[in-house]
Automatic annotation (TrEMBL):
One of its GO terms (molecular function) is metal ion binding. PANTHER family: ASPERCRYPTIN BIOSYNTHESIS CLUSTER-SPECIFIC TRANSCRIPTION REGULATOR ATNN-RELATED, TRANSCRIPTION FACTOR DOMAIN-CONTAINING PROTEIN-RELATED. It comes from the Eukaryota. Coiled coil: none annotated. The keyword Transit peptide does not apply. The keyword Protease does not apply. Keywords: DNA-binding, Metal-binding, Nucleus, Transcription, Transcription regulation, Zinc. This is C6 zinc finger domain protein.
């Protein structure tokens, strides 16, 4: 369409320029004033302005107008995401979802097998996936998947499996993934007492979703056994990502109601280790690691490991893996996620050290400054032990940086907080830890 539609062409060039900017500069957090001085940033801004102007002058009665507008919306979403302009990105996403929701409620069904679906299926799938991914950013109130049926068991006889594609299998589980994202958001943002107050309701939802994930996993295992050997390497990677996704949802669901209880999370350490191992295997399958991906890949499973695993060595390793591959998966930014997780680990380790020393020195007469100095020294010592157990040969690197200290972790997090992220699920959880 870019060859035929000037607005789409300029939007593509704008996204290309923004991508070129991060290729040259990397995905490190830069002050906003420094980032906006870049040549590629300015070129991207110029091209996006041209695309907007062409869209504004476009004939609204043109039958292609809807497709052009939705495609430009999608391109602008990714353009602003790679520039870490989250407010603008989600405004474009909300606008695109509004168009799709109005179409669906006006008698033009978006989902189904009809040949008269008014939107290109790939475009629809991209918006639906972005809606799911944006759940934890607390910005989208439109539920595109509310119009879609829940996960239904596909036909698993061999003749049907031979004609199914990896993309079709991914679309089959998308409504289920959407439902789980919403459940995770609810559980992860509630305290232990809040979960206990309506435990029956949450456990009922959890049980149903676990059952659905189990059915989906068994169904996909049959597809995997029949089709995997005949798939291309790219398709095999897609199939492996689906397996990782289902494993991630399974572990996330089984721990969703106990995420505030470290003792109850301890038995799940082998599950977290399996998630980390599978994520690393999939990363190794990428010959040239992309900077931007539409699909959900390894960031969520690594987040779950680094967020809740009680083996601190595995947590640090998951953070390091996120840092080793700076990239985006939809709205998820591996660098930003690793910074948030590092801060969460720092806060939790510091609280644990503080409580242990307070209990040990309960009868000692120490000034506040002396006690805090002891806490800092013990925290540094424990972090060195954790890193040395990783076996990376550098016991001075606590969170993926050869010179990073606890103060650096806190400084990085403060810089990340300058972004519009106060309502994100992960940020709200850290705030509760600090209360």
């Amino acid at each position: 369409m870019a060859n035929q539609e000037p607005a789409v062409c300029h939007a593509v060039i704008a996204l290309g320029a923004a991508h070129q900017d991060i290729i040259f500069r990397g995905l490190h957090l830069f002050p906003s004033s420094e980032r906006k001085r870049g040549v590629w940033y300015l070129y991207s801004l110029e091209e996006s302005a041209r695309a907007f102007e062409l869209l504004r002058r476009r004939n609204t009665q043109d039958p292609q107008m809807r497709q052009v507008m939705l495609l430009c919306c999608l391109l602008f979403v990714f353009l602003n995401l790679v520039q870490r302009d989250y407010d603008t990105a989600f405004r474009h996403l909300r606008a695109g979802l509004q168009v799709l929701t109005e179409l669906n409620s006006s008698g033009l069904p978006l989902f189904g097998t009809s040949a008269h679906i008014p939107v290109d299926p790939c475009l629809l799938a991209a918006f639906a996936q972005l809606e799911t991914q944006s759940t934890h950013f607390s910005v989208i109130n439109l539920q595109l998947w509310d119009h879609q049926l829940e996960f239904s068991q596909p036909r698993d006889n061999e003749s049907d499996l031979l004609h199914q594609s990896v993309d079709e299998r991914r679309r089959m589980i998308e409504p289920l993934i959407n439902a789980m994202f919403k459940f995770f958001k609810r559980c992860w943002t509630e305290s232990e007492s809040e979960i206990a107050s309506h435990y029956g309701e949450l456990q009922s939802i959890q049980t149903r979703l676990i059952s659905e994930v189990h059915r989906a996993t068994l169904s996909f295992a049959k597809f995997y056994a029949v089709r995997y050997a005949s798939l291309t390497r790219k398709q095999q990677r897609g199939a492996d990502l689906i397996r990782l996704c289902l494993l991630t949802q399974s572990v996330g669901l089984r721990t969703s109601l106990i995420h505030n209880n470290p003792e109850l999370l301890l038995p799940f350490t082998p599950d977290y280790a399996a998630l980390l191992s599978q994520s690393k295997k999939i990363i190794a399958q990428f010959p040239d690691r992309p900077t931007v991906m539409v699909d959900t890949g390894v960031i969520l499973p690594l987040y779950i490991v680094a967020d809740a695993c009680q083996d601190l060595t595995l947590r640090w390793e998951a953070i390091q893996v996120l840092r080793d591959w700076p990239h985006y998966e939809g709205p998820y930014d591996s660098v930003l996620v690793s910074i948030i997780l590092a801060e969460r680990c720092r806060v939790q380790m510091r609280a644990r050290v503080h409580n242990e020393l307070r209990a040990l020195l309960d009868n000692e007469q120490l000034s506040h400054a002396a006690f805090e100095s002891m806490v800092e020294a013990e925290l540094r010592a424990q972090m060195r032990i954790v890193i040395s157990q990783r076996g990376d040969g550098d016991d001075t690197r606590p969170v993926g940086s050869q010179t990073q200290t606890e103060a650096d972790v806190e400084a990085e997090f403060s810089q990340a907080m300058s972004l519009e992220c106060q309502k994100w699920t992960c940020i709200r959880r850290i705030k509760k830890l600090k209360e």
